[in-house]
Specification:
The chain has about 575 residues and is α/β, with parallel strands linked by helices. Helices cover about 40% and strands about 15% of the residues. The chain folds into 3 domains: about 1-170, 3-Layer(aba) Sandwich (Rossmann fold); about 190-355, TPP-binding domain (Rossmann fold, 3-Layer(aba) Sandwich); about 370-550, Rossmann fold (3-Layer(aba) Sandwich).
Length: about 575
């Protein structure tokens, strides 16, 4: 059967069981958009190529399947680079297809030409420039394999226009042969035994859980390990929901804005059992003072992470879904009563939890409206498996602190790259991936202004997401730093509470717009938003300008120097 390259690309995507593509057409990719009309694949027309990438990320976050985005050449390809970098940092499987100028024009500075494979080399697991239509099925098969195996991540296929129009004989490769790409899945038995011995002897262990547990689909295995051993668990920003917040062993989020108990548990620990985490600087603080008494077991599918920041006493390369059950079995063989052994440690942690809870003060008169109160009411009035998507900044930290995550893949955010503008398009993609779930985007006014146009996409495509803007009229996290560390010299952070008018903007994009000024209006607004399921809803919550995120570990300080609240610039 003879097909054009464009037809072969669409048929290959169908063979990979792609359900949806987020994209925006243009000249170089135009041939591929023609056979898309005859395909079963749903296409969602975004309003900016960055939005296509973030929407594909949101889809991948909540489904575990690779998100797919397709854009044209030149500026379209450069616009989606941010999403590729974001997915690369957070290990999100993406397949991005870009159009390219004809092969005879490559290197001539042709109209809308860019060296897309060169530009994206450092932010993709791999990329391909296709030079012959016969390569298309093999490259697509390889691209999905690379994106979804080992440490997941983004890949890119660059397709010249003339190759799209070229004829080829259709085939489909039933297997993938990449000799230089063989991820290690099974952990080394000896290393797993050594890890079990360390755990059996520890008195103050902590399970340090990162987003790799979610990427591996190993949340049940983690729960079984933690409950068998009675070991407390911290979940990083990327791992929220990997372990249920309502489980007594869950200490919550560690790091720069983690809670006191989670941060201090790591500092006082004698053993960190690190599962799919990478010792990120936001977790460690000053590395020289991080967890000074702890030995380290580090399990990760990416061998490059082992020893990158902290040298492990027991390194294990492997898939967490396979390694965690093996580790649990080895611990059981040792027949140690770990729960009894850890009773003093758990009692100490409980004391800290009681003494240093997350807190804020909402004026009973309703003003100023505290952002933490908004998030708590959103959570209390939402179904327990609601998907929460955040932008980046203060609102992201408050959402991760005050929402209770008891289900995996219900927290979607930009962790490593910290991409402002992530929330709205990612929420759109999440709702497409899980149309049965309520999806709330919690955004800041600064973030919202960067990608709000994707609400036009949401309205046009009937994707009823809900958006809560915590509008404090500032670039809040930057303002917090300027207040605390730059002598209150507020340089270029003021945004204005009234420009733009978010209610009118929402309505102009086909959404329902609601404004809330005080705490006594919050519940009514949320009830109204929850009752609307045929279009997007945007609530402009006018929150306290001067509220800061606490606890906080100041940059360059050790985690022992955590600031608990606004009145305490040093640890009690």
């Amino acid at each position: 059967m003879q097909l054009t390259g464009a037809q072969a690309l669409i048929k290959s995507l169908e063979m990979e069981q792609v359900e949806v593509i987020f994209g925006l057409p243009g000249g170089a990719i135009l041939p591929v958009y023609d056979p898309l009309l005859d395909s079963t694949i749903r296409h969602i027309l975004v309003r900016h190529e960055q939005g296509a990438g973030h929407a594909a990320e949101g889809y991948a976050h909540v489904t575990g399947r690779p998100g797919v985005a397709m854009v044209t050449s030149g500026p379209a390809a450069t616009n989606i680079v941010t999403a590729l970098a974001d997915a690369y940092m957070d290990s999100i499987p993406l397949v991005v297809i870009t159009g390219q100028v004809g092969t005879s024009l490559i290197g001539t500075d042709a109209f809308q030409e860019a060296d897309t494979t060169g530009i994206t080399m450092s932010v993709t697991k791999h990329n391909w420039l296709i030079t012959d239509a016969s390569q298309i099925p093999t490259v697509v098969r390889e691209a999905f394999h690379v994106a979804t195996t080992g440490r997941p991540g983004p890949v890119l296929i660059d397709l010249p226009k003339d190759v799209s129009n070229q004829a080829m004989e259709w085939y489909w490769p039933e297997s993938v042969d990449l000799p230089g790409y063989k991820p290690t899945l099974k952990g080394h038995p000896k290393m797993i035994q050594e890890a079990a011995k360390l755990i059996s002897k520890s008195l103050r262990p902590v399970l340090y859980v990162g987003g790799g547990v979610l990427r591996a689909g190993a949340t049940k295995e983690l729960l079984a390990l933690a409950e068998h051993c009675g070991i407390p668990v911290v979940t990083t920003l990327m791992a929220r929901g990997a372990f249920p917040d309502d489980n007594p062993l869950c200490l919550g989020m560690p790091g720069m804005h983690g809670n006191y108990t989670a941060v201090t548990s790591m500092q006082k620990s004698d053993l960190l059992i690190t599962l799919g985490a990478r010792f990120d600087d936001r977790v460690t603080g000053n590395v020289a003072g991080f967890a000074p008494y702890a030995k380290v077991i580090h399990v990760d599918i990416d061998p490059a992470e082992l020893g990158k920041i902290r040298n492990p006493d027991v390194p294990i390369v492997g898939d967490l879904k396979l390694v965690i059950p093996e580790l649990t079995r080895e611990i059981k063989k040792l027949k140690v009563d770990l729960k009894s052994q850890l009773e003093p440690w758990i009692a100490e942690l409980d004391t800290w939890r009681e003494k240093y809870p997350l807190s804020y003060n909402q004026d009973p008169g309703g003003r100023p409206l505290k952002p933490q109160y908004v998030i708590e009411r959103l959570r209390q009035m939402a179904p327990p498996d609601t998907i929460v998507v955040s932008g980046v900044g203060q609102h992201q930290m408050w959402a991760s602190q005050f929402w209770k995550f008891n289900h995996p893949n219900t927290w979607v955010n930009s962790g490593g790259l910290g991409t402002m503008g992530f929330a709205v398009p990612a929420a759109l993609g999440a709702k497409v991936g899980r149309p049965d779930k309520v999806v709330w985007a919690i955004d800041g006014d600064g973030c919202f202004q960067m990608t709000a146009q994707e609400l036009v996409t949401a309205t046009a495509e009937r994707i009823p997401i809900k958006v809560a803007i915590l509008n404090n009229a500032y670039l809040g996290m930057v303002r917090q730093w300027q207040e605390m560390f730059y002598d209150q010299r507020y340089s270029e952070v003021y945004l204005s509470p009234d420009l733009p008018d978010y209610v009118k903007w929402a309505e102009a994009m086909g959404c329902v717009g609601i404004r809330v000024d005080s705490a006594d209006e919050v519940e009514v607004a949320i009830e109204k938003a929850n009752s609307i399921n045929d279009r997007p809803v945007v609530i402009d919550f006018r929150t306290d300008t001067w509220e800061k995120v606490f606890p906080m570990v100041p940059a360059g300080k050790t985690n022992d120097e955590i600031v608990i609240g606004p009145q305490e610039m040093e640890r009690k």
